[in-house]
Amino acid sequence: MSFEGFVPWPADLAHAYRAAGVWPGRTMGSYLWEWAEARGDRVAVVDGVVRLSYRDLAVRADALAARLSERGLSRGDTVLVQLPNTWEFVVVTTALLRLGVVPTMMLPPHRDHELTAIGAHVRARGLVVPDTWRGFDHQELAFRVAGALPSSASVLVVGDSVAPGAVDVRALMDPSGDVAGRQAWLDAHSPAPSDIAVFLLSGGTTGVPKVISRTHDDYLFNITHSARACAFDSETVYLAVLPAGHNFPLASPGIFGALHAGGRVVFSSSPRPEPVFAAIEAERVTATSAVPAVVLKWVDAAASLKPDLSSLRYVHVGGSMLAPDIAERMARALGCRLQQVYGMAEGLICYTPPDAPDSLAFGTQGPPVSPFDELLIVDEDGLPVPPGGEGELLTRGPGTPRGYYGVPEQNKLSFTPDGWFRTGDLVRLTPEGYAVVCGRVKDLINRGGEKISAGEVETLIQELPEVAEVAAVPSPDPVYGERVCVFVRFHGGCSLSLAEISRFLTERGLAAFKIPERLEVLDAFPHTAVGKADKKALKVLLAEIDSQPR
Ligand code: J2J
């Protein structure tokens, strides 16, 4: 296999991680039959009326892997996976991991813009999509994107109405045939532990797609250490609420953490309180995870709906800032332990321990999962700040890759020459070594946990001939924490409404959650010394506008 854009860890460190056992030296797919044999008929995945045992999962994943191989996909290829939270997500991902075909985790709201850019960047050989989802025809989108990609990509569809020319994924999962023969063949053609296992998407700070390559070794490190930090075991029933393609529900400890611990994964098709409460009650869910904006909705709804949450032991909350008093309110209202999570698809992951005293459980985001994770807090000049001081967090470790995939110029900015990843987050460390996230220096908008690159939105808006200058900034929001606001200076005599800008972005194929929800028009922009829009000044201006009586 060759992934030219992959940045490896230094060989001596890789060796040390393996020698210490923090990298297991195995592939993610290599556990599948061990689980099937040890756990047999125990339920692994629940999705509505569908209940897959560990054995069902192994048989179906291998059937799909073998048939995808017959169709020409092989180790080192990559496909875009854009599936909602369904049992097929687990089978498809597992099949690809068995085969060494790298799933690139897209999200259901992504459209032409994201799929085409990312698909071209990773040279996707296929797109796995639902037929329709929430009234949107993903098949049609996938055919359009496949047609625009230089790599010849097939359209693989999970659903009842598979269009002519598309591959019916459910049919390929049919368990009939030579199960043992397929297993032996796949075991013999397994990828290597140092191969890329999955591609994750970064929130990004530029218009360039930033794809994070996670190897089997480093992703397994992340999953197994996360499962341990969250006390996952064979009694764990994990409810996957956030879109499964996000690192958080996928592997922190999430879906894979629950499977590794021998537990059960239950899918919720929506983060709304009613289906979430119904799933918790019906399946006796013990753990779930979500961003603060979602958990707050559960807290509000619990007061009136009075669900039976007695099985719930842990809620993992992370992805955006959470004030200590709100954290405490959440834990009390849901009647369970709250574990805060500070994580990133780029690797580092911190959890407050299940038995942390209240001051640390509510007031911090916890320590990293392993003593091999290194944290360094630096000031604006890149110099370490005194202990306890606030600054940008740099990190290195066995779960934090050394570069984004295939963007060497970007990597010079995002990583230091000695391999530290610049998180772009402002953090301080407590005397116990627990992280407290205080803000960020990176140029993105965090809308209820969804990261939106300001640069990506700005680059598209700049295409409008009426626009002279544009800057996207976060507008504070009581529900989502932040929403996208664009400041625009129009060319003389021109103007556009927010609705007109939104329509243009939708037509350009930008995911709906990235579309600006607020427009502020300026006659003149504040600029930094190097002539860029001064976002600090724009944020101050926004606060002034908001403080004026309406
Ligand atoms: C403040 N900001 C936070 C927190 C992440 C687990 C949990 C979350 C993510 C995730 C993840 C935060 N408080 N508790 O991948 O495995 C912001 C930071 C961080 C960025 C990463 C996981 N937890 N953040 O959110 O890749 O700014 O991952 O750098 O989407 O989210 O975003 P993302």
From TrEMBL:
Transmembrane segments: none annotated. PROSITE patterns: AMP_BINDING (PS00455). Residues 456-532 form the AMP-binding enzyme C-terminal domain. Residues 33-405 form the AMP-dependent synthetase/ligase domain. It holds the Pfam family AMP-binding. InterPro entries: AMP-bd_C, AMP-bd_C_sf, AMP-binding_CS, AMP-dep_synth/lig_dom, ATP-dep_AMP-bd_enzyme. This is AMP-binding protein.
